[in-house]
């Protein structure tokens, strides 16, 4: 995957590319290590997410990989093998910030997954709102096989996708799941033709980005904050999100455009 004139680099291994005005592609670009999450990659991923979160023109973010056979293979175990206990402890907040950075992006996010998405790599995908995979995708959280647990959000995000018992089975066995089964289990949301996960994710992002940026962010906030609450509390979260957008410029423009039978020109206010 080559560079582009509108590419911004965050260190050597993270790039952000724009597709039109409103779709941002966040690229994991450490191909020699199959995008293994090292301390440096985690730092740069956090920087890129911070910049995107502060960019009002970015309506949708698509996470992709520059490696032909992997989305991300998880933690850089070669780096960790040299760590002292103190160094491992110092790395922990760096990694947490990276996963949190993806999870807390305020706009809709889509992971485009092919090849291996394992451990922390799958947790990056799970931190997104939607996952588009191709038939080569293999996902899983194998951390218990090396004496740890999924620590990038996996123990919390996976049960929210597939339910507590199914998540327990996947985490306790650490097994790898191929694309077709992953779709049937709800581990991914859409299966693209082989080699087209990125293209289909970007196409989906373009369709989403045509909608109100105010509405999209408020809807994501309501979905995230309301999940796990009882129905009454969830409806209060929804009402707060509705009130935040009901008197916005986007709402006024959306209603006017509908009545005038034209495409809206969202002010994004």
From TrEMBL:
Keywords (A to Z) from UniProt: Lipid metabolism, Lyase
Pfam families: ECH_1 (PF00378)
CDD domains the UniProt entry points to: crotonase-like
GO MF annotation, one: enoyl-CoA hydratase activity
Keyword Nucleotide-binding: no
Enzyme class per UniProt: lyase
InterPro entries: ClpP/crotonase-like_dom_sf, Enoyl-CoA_hyd/isom_CS, Enoyl-CoA_hydra/iso, Enoyl-CoA_hydra_C
Gene Ontology biological process terms in this record: fatty acid beta-oxidation
Catalytic activity: a (3S)-3-hydroxyacyl-CoA = a (2E)-enoyl-CoA + H2O; a 4-saturated-(3S)-3-hydroxyacyl-CoA = a (3E)-enoyl-CoA + H2O
UniProt EC number: 4.2.1.17
Family affiliation: Belongs to the enoyl-CoA hydratase/isomerase family.
Protein name: enoyl-CoA hydratase
Record lineage: Bacteria, Bacillati, Actinomycetota, Actinomycetes, Kitasatosporales
